[in-house]
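Input sequence (469 aa), recorded before submission:
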Amino acid sequence: MPDFKHFPLPDVGEGLVEAEILTWHVAPGQTVAVNQIIVEIETAKAAVELPCPYAGVVSELLVQPGQTVDVGTPIIVIDTDPTGPVRTVDSVNGAAAARPTGEGDESGPVATLVGYGPKHGATARRRRRPQTPPAPPQGPPPTISVPVQSSAPPSTAPPSTARPPATWQEPTRPAARTTPAGGYVPLAKPPVRKLAKDLGVDIRSVAGTGEVITRDDVERAAAGPPPVSVSPGPVSPARERRVAVRGVRRATAQAMVDSAFTAPHVTEFLTVDVTPMMELRSKLKEHPEFRGVKLTPLAFAAKALCLAVRRTPDVNATWDAAAGEIVYKDYVHIGIAAATPRGLVVPKVRDADRMSLRELAEALDTLASTAREGKTPPADMLGGTITITNVGVFGVDTGTPIINPGESAILALGAIRDLPWVVDGQVVPRKVCQLALSFDHRVVDGQQGSRFLADVGALLADPAVAITY
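Predicted structure, token format:
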């Protein structure tokens, strides 16, 4: 006797309310085992592969790729007892529809999966507004015309509601005199005629603004006709693309709007000579302990940030508006802004303040590779305390970054360039980098933000300063 089991979309992250089905790895009629990967979904955080909670045969896929469904919605039906006669499953009204997991079903095995199933009462979802496109206007667009008097006799036809368009009349030419041959000669003073001759302008071609041609008329004609404003015509739909805002892109957009219009941002900038840091980086690459390690300027910036937080813990705090409190954190979870094909994500390096420079470099390399592949677990996106965005990898000098929600500061690391710099009274080429720090002015005062940025800059300009922290 077939035993059909519905697998509802589980909550794979804290507070997940929906996800998009990306790719099915199974098809109806295929045999599956417990914990076999059956589908890849995209949440507001990342792409996640879901294992199957049952062993059996796939009976039906209830959701197609590209669809977004709520947590708890059944997405697949598994026949856990395929030895019985085959029959069609009606996933909505059929008698063979399986009961949701955990609702009085004791006849079949129930697999235990981490994070499986919706958390009842833990998440709430706002109603979606129907996206109905506005109705196109009926009939041709209204035209506005000016009535013109006519000498024709009145018509006996019934009056029309449309008003006849005005006829265009050529403006009256200013007064002029004619030569015996009948040529047109505009009126102009001798100095104006001489100006036209000097500028190479035919006085007969000048359109005057009055009855007499003036110097302004001649100079305007010499400058050429004014540009004609042409309104663009309709763009063919074939030359435009529309992409639905969902998944990571939608979550990022909402988070940035919430942050920008909630936390009062202040951004400060600092230009730093990082030549000593780059020289130390070259030396460490040859050190046995760092062989095989991808040691980037970002790793030095992360280490400098952790050391600077010790002296200015306010940048690592959180504003709790509900409780009316500032939460100071004795740990540093650095968020690293990473560009991925699915959009901007900010995975975290946990307890970065406890890591050595080598450990930080390895963690950053692993984090970047996982993010580019879209395989960052949703849990790794949560709980950051401060963020670094490395815009320098794109050749950008600096910017005004937006603070991630729940944090109080974000550091932008610009491109490192060879620039002239004054050293001991002499202008010499140096490795120069620009830093930008945005902070929440509710938590961080100007003095605190300035000191923190200055500390980060000092550590990058002379890494030996680290022994004094």
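Checked by second reader. Residues 357-372 form the longest helix (16 residues).
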